[in-house]
Design a protein that fits this description.
By secondary structure, the protein is mostly helical. Helix content is about 60%, strand content about 0%. It has a domain at about 40-95. It has helices at about 15-30, 40-55, 60-75, 80-95. The longest helix is centred in the N-terminal third of the chain and has 16 residues, at about 15-30. The N and C termini lie far apart (about 85 Å).
Length: about 100
């Protein structure tokens, strides 16, 4: 005797189980009046500052143009002592 089973007569058990899980999750997701999220004022200010920094351009075109103009006119000069002092003070702060 040969028995043939085709997929049309068998109920898809996986989908029934998935639907049951979804309904259980929905029942558990009822948020009570006590469940609230409070973000501190400092966190809100921090988030606004982070967004402002993200909005700044990576290259300050106005400064680049100003220095390029000074260089092209031969008027740009560097103070090596000042740069060295600044670098050393940054090293003390960072290390």
């Amino acid at each position: 005797m040969i028995m043939k089973i085709d997929g049309t007569s068998i109920s898809p058990i996986g989908s029934v189980q998935a639907a049951t899980k979804v309904s259980q999750i929905n029942k558990n997701n009822n948020i009570s009046d006590q469940d609230k999220l409070a973000v501190s004022e400092n966190a809100q200010v921090f988030q606004k500052l982070v967004q402002k920094v993200k909005d700044l351009p990576e290259v300050r075109e106005d400064k680049v143009k100003e220095i390029s103009d000074l260089i092209s006119r031969g008027e740009f000069s560097l103070d090596a002592d000042s740069i060295a002092a600044s670098m050393l003070s940054q090293e003390k702060i960072g290390g």
